[in-house]
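ingest -> fold -> write
write: protein_1
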Amino acid sequence: MEKANYVPDINKVNFDLLQEDEVIDMAKLLYDFANTIMLSAEKNEPSIIARYLINLAQKFSTFYNNNKIINENKELQEARLYLTYACGNVLKIGAGLLGMEMPDKM
């Protein structure tokens, strides 16, 4: 995100360009964040959020290692950038719910 120096406008991002299995898995996991929080609260088990965040971080690592985020295809770049942005936000929020601070860089 720092290299790109911007967050794409979600209304202009073409998510149809993201067809890789690891991306679809990560998107499904991101979509399930609210349900994970509710389940954790209902069961009074913060470990549910912790396991979710570990799984998301692993999926993002696979995505990051297999895909060039900054590239020549600007439409694809914006889709990958927004996915990276969303993943970072969910990781920060989830860690915050567990009382941890996430670094801005890793």
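write: protein_2
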Amino acid sequence: MACTEAIKREMEPLLREMERYAEAHYVPILRARERRIFCETVMEACPHRILELGTGIGYSTLVQAMLGAEDVRIVTVEINEARMEAAKGFIGRSPYRDCIEMHFGDAGELLSSLGGTFDFVFMDAAKGQYANYFRLFQPLLAEQAVIAADNVLFHGYVQAKGKIPHKRRSMVQHLREYIEMITHMEGYETVIREDGDGMAITRRVGHEHEKA
């Protein structure tokens, strides 16, 4: 569905309502600076088929629907039941409800059951599982697919040189492993955008999948 001026006008109050809901219920959504990078990335890729890990309340889902190709289709996965219910409500009130397929459950368990190919992937789920998720969805990536992973710098801890607090250590190590993997994997190019909490933009440039 093309994002016409009429649809933009229809979506604007819904997105503002979602922003207020997120603030009131302490639900993380794309920050303003991250939103700019994210929107630029989606518009440049103009994806037809999107995989989203971490629906939240559906904010980024609807942003992708608005900025994707005219025939965009989105498969989105969320493990938090309350957020999934909120997302169903918001998405159900949007003009994009029929092009969004929602799945409730653990992305690590659901990815193996998904079919088809995706030319855009957005990860905003369990940060410690990014590397594992990538390995699972890699066979589903189309040629020249783009993968955007949010919060990869994790409040600056990932780039910190000093000692990491114990409760943050495991998460930081997993994110460092993910960044190391995607920046050295043959057939892919990665840029880390440091705006906000950090977003890794990975582009598939090879023609054959390589093992991580």
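write: annotation protein_2
Residues 53 and 186 are 24 Å apart (CA to CA).
Confidence is low (pLDDT under 50) at residues 208-212.
pipeline exit 0
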